[in-house]
Specification:
Strands 1, 2, 3, 4, 5, 6 and 7 form a 7-stranded mixed β-sheet that branches. It is globular and about 45 Å long. Helix content is about 35%, strand content about 15%. The protein binds flavin mononucleotide. Flavin mononucleotide (FMN) binds next to helix 2, helix 5 and strand 4. The site of flavin mononucleotide (FMN) has 19 residues, from helix 2, helix 5 and strand 4.
Length: about 200
């Protein structure tokens, strides 16, 4: 993708996915893009078996060299000041997907999306949720059909073990960003399922 894109990079509480997202952030930074990390309240404060909040906050600041946006007031200027060319939500939980589909704005990430969309700029979602083909399916469908939203191609990650689960392929994030900046959805959107 082109260098020097200003990317707002929002992370929500799909904690098991953080380790596969961080290298993509590092890659995007090394390519000369400016990445500003944004954390949902839960992503920014919860310690889980996938690492402490302090660990991930430090890693993100190290990878991007930028101050985290982790409050609603800090996210509010994103639109008025046209801070980003593109806003990524990776990973995007079922919870955040539901809020975006229904116009609920009560976290730094949903505030960032709402503010960014004020300028009709692209939003990219990298969905990761165990109920993608059940409880979250309607919300995914709603946002697939909404202007300015693009999706990192996704697959069933464990069709037999977790038959309703879907996960975006984080390695396709840079290509998804490039396509979205030209108003295109990267294809194919639906990837072959993982073998398990
Ligand atoms: C260890 C752990 C892993 C989780 N993984 C996921 C996940 O992969 N996808 C998801 O939609 N929710 C996941 N959740 C639940 C979310 O963190 C929870 O719904 C939270 O309210 C999300 O808030 P947010 O969307 O504002 O970050 C996980 C929770 C924990 C504690």
């Amino acid at each position: 993708m082109n260098s020097s894109v200003r990317i707002g990079f929002a992370m929500t509480g799909s904690f098991c996915t953080f380790a596969s997202v961080l290298p993509v952030i590092q890659e995007l930074t090394e390519r000369g893009n400016t990445i500003t990390p944004i954390l949902s309240f839960h992503a920014g404060t919860l310690d889980t078996r996938f690492g402490t909040a302090a660990h991930w906050r430090h890693a993100l600041q190290q990878a991007t060299g930028r101050t985290l946006i982790d409050s609603i007031p800090a996210a509010e200027p994103i639109g008025p000041k046209a801070l980003f060319d593109v806003l990524v939500v990776a990973p995007c939980t079922g919870n955040t997907l539901a809020k975006l589909a229904h116009g609920i704005t009560d976290t730094p990430v949903t505030m960032a999306v709402k503010s960014h969309l004020r300028g009709e700029r692209p939003v990219i979602l990298a969905v990761s949720t165990n109920d993608g083909l059940s409880g979250s399916a309607a919300n995914l469908g709603t946002l697939l059909n909404r202007k300015h939203y693009y999706f990192v191609p996704l697959r069933q990650d464990a069709p037999r073990l977790k038959p309703r689960s879907i996960v975006a392929d984080m390695a396709l994030l840079p290509d998804t960003i490039q396509a979205a900046l030209s108003g295109q959805q990267l294809q194919p959107l639906l990837l072959a399922p993982s073998p398990s």
